[in-house]
TrEMBL record:
It comes from Arenibacter nanhaiticus. It catalyses: Couples ATP hydrolysis with the unwinding of duplex DNA by translocating in the 3'-5' direction. Its EC number is 5.6.2.4. Residues 222-378 form the Helicase C-terminal domain. This is DNA helicase RecQ.
Amino acid sequence: MKLNEIDLRVSLKKYFGFSQFKGLQEQVVKTILQGENTFVIMPTGGGKSLCYQLPALMQEGTAIVVSPLIALMKNQVDAIRGLSSEMGVAHVLNSSLTKTEIKQVKKDISSGVTKLLYVAPESLTKEEYVDFLQKEKISFVAVDEAHCISEWGHDFRPEYRNLKAIVNRLGDNIPLIALTATATPKVQEDIIKNLGINDAKIFLASFNRPNLYYEVRPKTQNVDSDIIRFVKQNSGKSGIIYCLSRKRVEELAQVLQVNGISAVPYHAGFDAKTRSKHQDMFLMEDVDVVVATIAFGMGIDKPDVRFVIHHDIPKSIESYYQETGRAGRDGGEGHCLAFYSYKDVEKLEKFMSGKPVAEQEIGNALLQEIVGYAETSISRRKFILHYFGEEFDEVNGEGADMDDNTRNPKEKHEAKDNVVKLISVVKGTSEKFKSKEIVKALTGKVNALIASHKTDEKEFFGIGKDRDKGYWMALIRQVLVAGLLKKEIEQYGILHLTPKGEEFLENPTSFMMTRDHVYNKATDDAIVS
Ligand code: ADP
């Protein structure tokens, strides 16, 4: 397809009514129109849908869009229908349709009316559909929420693993477009491998959300009053409060209501009618606050959510990023406040204990990352972006002062000598230990793993005895963010040296660190020191 920029703009205006592309959209659309495999990684709200919808509407044939949730598909299809009724039609093919409806959808595909066909991965495995689609002209297959392919993402769906084989059956050289808002390098790698798109053009947008303010506060017995105070200080603004359990959702919504705050509860235990009523009340601003489990949010596009509070710490940094990402979509203020207590981490660990071992290990590795986020005293934005493989300049970067740690910095200390000790121990133990064992080796503590490797007989065993575990954990996190060490997440967190780390060992330079925040685990009466 031969295209120039004017054609693209005209089509953008015609189908969507927008005058300009957002971010990387234009380049992505061009690449898809050229029939190339494409991988789009953009944060929530970045405008991913348009990246495949526009080329689908502009091309011959039907684009298949694989999407994990029926509700999500319905939203998308309704939105497309609202945009361009005659030109491009979007349809859903899934188990909720009647026989007659299925017949009609098939007819529309064959006659070329259907430009976008939304399917769930399990529908796509049905022989009946595969047989039918094989005979039709398929422009490309877009895999939305592609992180569902990876166990290291926040929403693993085994059905996503079979997509490549099915697409191969649909025809030769059908371009594949993968889209996700999860940017960890490990998840990206899994997606590319699983879909067999080594040759894909990759479009990676920055995950920095400069208008969001990140804050962590200790969670005490007074957490409800803390939340009430915060909401009252922000009265009239829209906000979401996430809780882990349905019971807590209901209790907290009630507490807020009793305190004169207009709030509704939302979780998957309510019937569909109540859920959609409460959701609409929030969207239409009949209430200010929705107290919810993570069931609330997917596909919700309220641009002016001003705060997202986490009553409980979420299970990973990806989840936290997704959930807080619902704040400030319009570019305005968005306060992301998480309440943290180590007890909640133990609760999450307990939840996982019934699961298969591999899943537990992954779960624990992800959980340790969010603990790191909560306890760190460095720029929270830098911490999150580092997790997503992105460097952030905490002095001049966009949104550099938008977190509690940066606004109230702790005193920094020279840690050059200790960084040398740390890196030497990682090297001296042949890069096979996780943080936990490295800290033991530094502080001279033995456990089974240390003993089995005879690390306690090494000359460096205990060279960091003068500091406690908390100190070393903080230093490890900061050294990781500085890129002197790296963590192999697929090995559940084994620490390795980077070339930068090797260089530091040879030629140590100043390294200023701050101690982590300290939370009192015993009484849960957390204090940030
Ligand atoms: P994502 O799927 O990446 O979370 P969406 O596709 O839902 O993002 O888009 C987020 C919002 O941005 C939507 O409200 C959409 O209408 C809007 N949007 C997308 N592209 C443009 C554009 N080029 N100009 C203006 N608004 C856009």
